Amino acid sequence: MQRPKLWTQRRGPVGRRLTTLTLLGAACCASGVIAAAATSTASAATARAATAPVTLQFWSTYNKADKEDSTFVNVVIKRFEKLHPDIKVVSSTYPYADLLGKFLAASAAGDPPDLLRSDIQWVSQLASQGVAQNVGSLPGFAAIKANTLPGPLATTYVATGESPGYYAFPDDTNTQALFWNKTLFAAAGISGPPKTLSQMYADAAKLTVPSKQQFGLGVDGTDIWNVAPYIWSAGGEFTSPKYKTATGYMNSSGTVSAVTSLVNLLKAGDIGSDFQGGASAVSGEEGFPKGEYAMYIDGPWAVPTYSADNPKPDYGIAPFPSGSAGSISTVGGEDIVVAAGGHHKTAADEFAEYLDSNYAQDAMASQGDMATEVSAASGEVKATPYYKVFVNQLKTAKVRAVSAGYSAMDSAWSNELGAILAGKVSVQGGLNIAAVQGNGALRGITP
Length: 447
Hints:
The chain has about 450 residues and is an alpha+beta fold. The protein contains 19 helices and 10 strands. It folds into 2 domains: about 25-175 and about 330-385, 3-Layer(aba) Sandwich (D-Maltodextrin-Binding Protein, domain 2); about 175-330 and about 405-440, D-Maltodextrin-Binding Protein, domain 2, CATH 3.40.190.
């Protein structure tokens, strides 16, 4: 997303469907393994007591515009430091677009941060480049693995390469659903949110009022995270099921049809400036509470932001409208990567394990970061009722390509879609180019 939040975006895993019957399976506690891990952690802390205090560097894209970052610093880190007086944690936040490159550059220079809160789509790339530690054999990981929802856990596992294994700790999971402005819908004589894509597009036209700078729909960018629900739900695809090729999928008739619908809406003036981006573009999360966008898709983190607004927008959250393939949104989330070249790996492992504790997960869940733990899932929905629509959306949500070449493929798609929207190339022509470039990305070949 080129940017739903002012600082960060939530993106997701890889390309198969999840079921929330799986996601919200029976809770388990793995208490014996957890106790063993706690003993190991205590021993490590005792061993460090005779040495100088350790300072960990933690990099993330936590949002400073609401309480997400401050909760992490003042609640989560503060308690960890109280429990571990020999360890200090310095948290630094960066824009999403800058974080991956900055981490790779720091790793190449031999001075990476100790931990990175990574987009789930980056884990495979970081593992393939040797800058992420394989954490699967750590004493505390077995307990975390036993108590993690299958979907988020799968995003930490890299099956390709010389050393398959777990290269991150699961941190949070999420997906996107439809946010709709009740006031604008009522003014347009529309009784409720659309249930189908065709109805969504028809409503977008009715809700567009040029004289008020009001658009029926906001689409927060041309990248796969933002457009995948429109493509997948309409029967389009990006890659083959095992992520080997993009040809025949990214440029298929279903994808062409889905993109054509979005192009037509933009030409009609029913989609706002967020879609094409640029210096003057208004993001969905910025424009929606002001009434500039009547509909857009976003994740659970948007709710705390709107709760702090004055006046608070009158809105609802509904499932993403169904197309010929159903209602399919994108799985998102973040994982915690321990830098392979970090200077304090033992302490970093302890902090990463702590971030999967009930305390840390519950604290961040209050800020829209849905917990990855089986034991927290059902209670989390009770404590945070608006999570229900996102949990239900996860039943049919899909994860994006698990491939070290995903970022390059995403860039190729985004650039060509931008060219299509600008009228520089036809829909079919642009998607043909994107598919060829996507093939190269999936094979590790970049232009």
